[in-house]
Design brief:
The complex is a heterodimer of chains A (about 100) and B (about 250). By secondary structure, chain A is mainly alpha-helical. Chain A has three helices and no strands. Chain A has one domain. Chain A is about 85% helix and about 0% strand. In chain B, helix 5 runs antiparallel to helix 6. In chain B, about 75% of the residues lie in helices and about 0% in strands. Chain B has one domain. The chains are: A mainly alpha (about 100), B mainly alpha (about 250).
Chain lengths: ~100, ~250
């Protein structure tokens, strides 16, 4: 019985103490750290995103060439498509939501 | 040329672990490290959650921090329904994090530095999120590849681009983790080998000069610690992003 009341009282005191100690300051610091984290995360992603699309496009082109005996035309055709897909990846990674 | 040489990639060689039993069933040192990572995760959580104190101790707050960190990541990225995928994301995150961290210690093996491991993880995430997409939306999920608000004569050009962009996900996911871990370990090995080379060729003078690569290696250790955590985080948040795409279709 008393345990439940203690707990409720404790939660209340905890909340009050938290607000008194570091209300607005903490929020600002947290969002700052969050944006730095996102920036680093983005930097880690961008290079690989472009190359990966290119690799996939060339592999698909190469496979289709083998299938249809059209070496190397489909692979050449896929190179610009891969480049554009890489750019699409970049745009999407940097938070562009249009048309996605 | 006699003397020490730099064998930067030798550290990634697979050997057998667990003695004779391991040799018999091809249990490698990489598998040993995976098992170790899983055991450490389970042990830390069992230890941290043993007391279940209202005011957590050190281990318990570590565990709670990790839990809340990944939970917030799930909810922020996927939305409320993201909690359904929380166990998966949390498992992947802690497994990769521990794998990266264990690999940083001397004599331990970094299993995330093998493309076979990271590609398996990435393909699992890829197949799973595609499955979730089809499960949630049925064949309407194919609309994901058709960008909205585009004149229809452009579609034959845009749909292949979208498909390639989608297919490139497991590649970028796996290569990023693998490349970061491998590059870090190779750099360590190269600087360490350089110290031996200096000492072997210039004697005492070389031994003093090798303070420079030693210092670089110490600095690299800090960087690698950052990379180990960050790559686990990036892998987990991209898993969340892909699941978000599968659930919400945009």
């Amino acid at each position: 019985m008393s345990e439940g009341r203690d707990k409720a009282a404790f939660e209340q005191r905890l909340k009050a103490a938290e607000q008194a100690a570091e209300g607005p300051k903490r929020d600002a610091a947290e969002s700052d750290a969050g944006s730095a984290r996102r920036a680093i995360e983005l930097a880690m992603r961008l290079g690989v995103e472009m190359v990966a699309a290119m690799v996939i496009a060339v592999v698909i082109g190469w496979g289709l060439d083998k299938l249809f005996h059209t070496t190397p035309w489909l692979m050449i055709l896929m190179v610009p498509v891969g480049m554009v897909a890489g750019l699409r990846n970049l745009l999407r990674a940097s938070g562009d939501k249009t048309g996605g | 040329m006699a003397g020490p040489t730099i064998d930067a990639l030798g550290q990634f060689t697979l050997t057998t672990g667990l003695g004779g039993l391991g040799r018999a069933v091809n249990f490698t040192n990489s598998n040993e490290a995976m098992l170790g990572a899983a055991v450490v995760v389970v042990l830390v959580f069992a230890l941290g959650l043993r007391s279940r104190a209202l005011v957590p101790g050190r281990t318990q707050s570590l565990v709670e921090m990790l839990y809340e960190f990944v939970r917030n990541m799930c909810v922020d990225t996927i939305g409320e329904e993201g909690l359904r995928f929380f166990p998966l994301v949390f498992t992947i995150f802690s497994f990769i994090l521990l794998g990266n961290l264990i690999g940083l210690f001397p004599y331990f093996f970094a299993f995330t530095s093998h493309i076979a491991v990271t590609l398996t993880l990435a393909l699992f995430v890829f197949v799973f999120s595609t499955g979730v997409g089809f499960y949630t939306h049925g064949f309407k999920f194919l609309k994901f590849f058709v960008p909205s608000g585009v004149p229809s004569w452009l579609l034959p050009l845009l749909v292949p681009i979208e498909i390639i962009s989608y297919l490139s996900r497991p590649v970028s996911l796996s290569v990023r983790l693998f490349a970061n871990m491998t590059a870090g370990h190779v750099m360590w090995e190269v600087f360490a080998g350089f110290m031996l080379l200096l000492t072997a060729s210039f004697g005492v003078l070389g031994a003093f000069a090798s303070v420079v690569p030693l210092g670089l290696n110490v600095a690299l250790a800090a960087l690698e610690l950052l990379v180990a955590g960050l790559q686990a985080y990036v892998f987990a948040i991209l898993t969340c992003l892909y699941l978000h795409d599968a659930v919400h279709m945009h």
